[in-house]
Amino acid sequence: MNIGVLALQGDFAEHIITLKNIGADAREVRLPQHLNDLDGLIIPGGESTTIGKLALAYKLMDPLRAFGREKAIWGTCAGAIFLAKDAHREQPLLELMDITVERNAFGRQVDSFEIGLEVPALKTISKSDALYQAIFIRAPLIESIQADAEILAALPDGRIVAARQRNWLATVFHPELTPDDRFHRYFVEMAATQ
Ligand code: GLN
Fold it and tell me: Is 95 a catalytic residue?
């Protein structure tokens, strides 16, 4: 599988390392032509307004939307915001996935935290019963899902932190910062079946 990682800003390098560790071909995407022949694309965490402005500057908005109509895209944290239909603010969004996000829902950088999540969907790629240790860094929340989007994980109080809609995956935490590679393997499997 050939997986691209949008490398405009944010922690794309960590995603590439994890992808290579699980045996996928990983490539940085900075220009529209870098999307050619990819099976899937990860949009990393970082700062969603910056990622959006750079995507506009590099004429990536339409090529990314066209890619997302056919292939798998996974947005982590800022990437989940960029993938969303609505973030309650004026900022460039791909507007692909039917989710509404609330940016910085947990407060400031110092309010970053880690929590074990129950993610039933990961059972399809691993028999492990271990909770998924999720790292939240100035994370958004998936405030609501619409259309045929589905919840993959929620906090104990019910707030949504991971969702999937057909070939789109959104996680508000950072799977590239933990040794647990189950989410990356789940995404490669998604990319393989589109
Ligand atoms: N706070 C960032 C934003 O709103 C997201 C943070 C992250 O990606 N870790 O864009």
Answer: no
2-192 maps to CATH 3.40.50.1820: no
| Structure tokens given for 146 | 């619409």
Nearest-CA residue for atom 4 of ligand 1: 103
3-state secondary structure of 5: strand
pTM above 0.90, yes or no: yes
pLDDT digits (tens, 9 = 90+) for 114-157: 999 999 999 999 999 899 999 999 999 999 999 999 999 999 99
Domain ranges of the chain: 2-192
Apex CA 111: angle with CA 105 and CA 117, to 5°? 75
According to DSSP, residue 104 is labeled: T
Probe target for ligand 1 pocket from 14, 48, 174, with the most ligand atoms within 8 Å of CB:
48
